[in-house]
Amino acid sequence: MSSFSIGARPPDAGRWLSIVRRLAGGIIAAVGLIFLIIGILFMIGRSWPTATGTVGQCVMSTTYSGANHSRTQHDECTVTWTYQGRQHTTSIDFGARHAAGQPVTLRVHGNQAIEDTPGWVSAIMLGVGIVLLLAGLGLALLPRRGRRASTLRTALST
């Protein structure tokens, strides 16, 4: 005869569920941390002054990734801008959105430049990062409610 009834979990199931829960929580927390870091970097970039640049020559490249060989196009363009009386040039990957000679709004810091993004993008990245980080940590580190409730029931019944 079996030592547990139909529908009951095997004795080791709780341990494996705990391992899976902690692993899933760690992965969710790691993704949240990535979103949080990207949001912070976007916020730092938003503190840089703006400048209007001109898109120069672009070189199109295509990368393939994944099992289904999904295609991503990159448009690496030279961009020239003037800030505080000095002309600067750098290369930016626009993802096939700009044509040569087209003006583009940039955030600049010395010889570095990034394409200006709306403020809400930074806020969403930060918010999603915080929520995922906290949810993942909660899933990975906090004990299950069922275990605490059953322990409390056992303590109260004695």
Q: Report mean pLDDT, rounded to a whole number.
A: 82
So what's the overall shape?
elongated
What kind of assembly state do the chains in view correspond to? single chain
The low-pLDDT segments are none
Order of helices and strands: HEEEEEHH
SS element count, helices: 3
- Provide the helix percentage: 40-55%
For the biggest sheet, the summary is: 5 strands, antiparallel
Descriptive key words:
158 residues, alpha+beta, 5-stranded antiparallel β-sheet, 3 helices, 44% helix, 31% strand, elongated
Question: Can you give a write-up of this model?
Answer:
- The chain is α+β, with helices and mostly antiparallel strands and 158 residues long.
- It has one domain (13-157).
- The chain is built from three helices and five strands.
- It has a five-stranded antiparallel β-sheet, with no helix packed on it.
- A hairpin with a 4-residue loop joins strand 1 (50-65) and strand 2.
- Helix 1 packs antiparallel against helix 2 (119-141).
Topology:
Layout: H1 13-46, E1 50-65, E2 70-83, E3 86-93, E4 103-109, E5 112-115, H2 119-141, H3 145-157
Antiparallel strand pairs: 1-2, 1-4, 2-3, 4-5
What is the gist of this entry?
The protein is an alpha+beta fold and 158 residues long. It has 3 helices and 5 strands; from the N terminus they run αβββββαα.
